[in-house]
Amino acid sequence: MTDIYSVSAPSNIAFLKYWGKKDPLLQWPANDSLSMTLNQLASRTTAYRHDTEDHRFQFQGEVLPRDHGSFHKVYKHLDYLSEICGFQEKLSLSSTNSFPTGAGIASSASGLAALTIAALACWTESGSFSELSEKGFSRESLAHFARMGSGSAGRSLFGGFVQWQAGTHADKQKIIGLYDANHWPLHDTVALFSHSEKSKSSTAAHADAWSSILFEPRVAGAPERMNAMLKAVHSQSIATLGPLLETEALEMHAVMMTTRPPQFYLTTEAVAFIAAFRRARQDGLFEAYFTIDAGPNVHIIHEASETSALTTWTAEHYPTLQLLQDRVGEGPRLERGLN
Ligand code: 2P0
Questions:
Q1: Which CATH number is associated with domain 187-327?
Q2: Does an H or E element contain 66, and which?
Q3: Which of 21, 116, 184, 336 meets the CB 3.0–4.6 Å disulfide criterion with 236?
Q4: Which tens digit of pLDDT belongs to each residue from 258-279?
Q5: Does 208 contact ligand 1 (Cβ within 6 A)?
């Protein structure tokens, strides 16, 4: 029997987006970002020590070797953690997602957060976050290790509302849990327009962001938008936050569409949905606002009081559309058991 470490790490939805890097090797973002950690949309990863030549990684039941295209990030991140933290033992890891991978629901955020916690818990034999902290791995240090695997993963180390500050140097970055989940019980209802893999990975698209004429004005305007969003989250004002969310998402997609080469993550279906959704809101059917990540799925941010009106409207106008219902969550969980 060996100890096995099980982690459930949630995805997060960015209110103010991370798009573009000042330094891709050091994972230094061009601007600060702000997110809400989700609850149900999560990656679950288990890890135990495995006496073999290389790590073994299984995803949704399938063993994926080191040279497997879209999962090279996993092995690269294990190598990075192993080298920087000085752990030699090989691990056997198994991971599942509660949502479709590569469909703009930030699977790399939850996946790389879960991987980071599971690997470090296993190497340090820590069955809780407090044990990890006693061994020198505080929550914030785990967030920075996760960010090196995938930028947005750093924000998934905390529950509630989280800010990633770029700082004045790559090594002055900060990832801060601003408010717990109970500060403001916001919901995220995801209108699922695609289950398939993204046409271009976020990492590749981040690098192209600089070629858009809209990129620098967007980065220059980010501090003012951050202040306005922080005030809205602090005062729990959906009427203030909502329009900021929508402008932010559309501006990020405007940057994406004006890079060389241009990148269209949005589909005509998603754009038509957004237009109809905005009209329904203007007609007073509900108070809810959208945001979109690097994919065609539309995240609808709203308070619990709006769920019924929103689902009634979508059922009537989009009867075949799949909705994923989620809300703000408390952050990752870690447990130790016997294999
Ligand atoms: C975000 N996204 O803030 C933004 C909004 C997608 C749109 O962070 O290269 O997978 O692994 O650091 O974190 C997606 O980019 O990129 C992302 P890498 P990541 O959530």
A1: 3.30.70.890
A2: none
A3: 184
A4: 999 999 999 999 999 999 999 9
A5: no
